[in-house]
Write a structure and sequence with these properties.
It comes from Phrynocephalus forsythii. By secondary structure, the chain is α+β, with helices and mostly antiparallel strands. It has six helices and five strands, in the order βαβββαααβαα. It has a five-stranded antiparallel beta sheet with strand order 4-3-2-1-5. β3 and β4 (about 50-55) form a beta hairpin. The N and C termini lie far apart (about 85 Å).
Length: about 200
């Protein structure tokens, strides 16, 4: 959650490219990179005079530029999901050590905590995607404190921290599936015993 590798993007200094009427081969001189996470990131801007690297933090630098409420909600969802994941892990260990004597400490409890942890992880991932796709999060960060130049996003991609959150939600869903399977009572297969054929000769002996 605290890493700066949630999102990376290639940015183009649109103003600089238009000033010199740059063609496709020359656009490379105006392309930079940006990466960021939930708390900060960095930007390499190129506007024809060489690259210039800068760092930024979400709080307090970008608090007024971004949708702060949505950003805080994403962090809260991840924190709650992490807490419920720890509780689920604790109950799993408890079930391994000893047989539970109350329902919420058994399969039902494990299912509940996994459902809550996975649900909040899904909400966090969905909220982050909404911030990126609907609220133009990357573009707002790229143009932060830029008065002379305008930057546009050429391409962007989610990085490993984002996919770890997706994997976390997937693991909780798999845990729910395993718990559900463990509660199914499958019919026992009974082997049919062969009846011994007793003849008159066997009785005589």
């Amino acid at each position: 959650m605290g890493t700066q590798k949630w999102m990376t993007a290639t940015i183009l200094c649109k103003t600089g490219a238009e000033l010199v009427n740059a063609t496709d081969p020359e656009l490379v001189k105006f392309m930079g990179q940006i990466y960021y996470g939930l708390f900060g990131g960095g930007k390499m801007r190129q506007c024809g005079l060489g690259g210039r690297y800068s760092r930024f933090t979400i709080f307090p630098h970008l608090a007024k530029t971004l949708n702060t409420a949505l950003h805080v909600v994403i962090i809260l969802f991840l924190c709650v999901a992490f807490c419920f994941a720890l509780i689920s892990l604790g109950f799993c260990i408890l079930n391994i050590i000893r047989v539970p004597y109350q329902a919420f400490r058994g399969p039902a409890g494990i299912a509940l905590w996994n459902l809550l942890a996975g649900g909040f992880a899904v909400l966090a991932v969905t909220s982050f995607m909404a911030a990126v796709e609907l609220h133009n999060l990357t573009e707002k960060i790229a143009n932060f404190q830029e008065t002379l130049f305008q930057f546009i996003i050429l391409e962007q991609q989610y990085e490993h921290s984002f996919w770890l959150s997706v994997a976390s939600a997937t693991v909780h869903a798999l845990n729910l599936l395993l718990v559900a399977i463990s509660t199914i009572h499958f019919p026992m297969l009974k082997t049919k015993t062969e009846e011994a054929n007793v003849t008159a000769e066997d009785i005589m002996y």
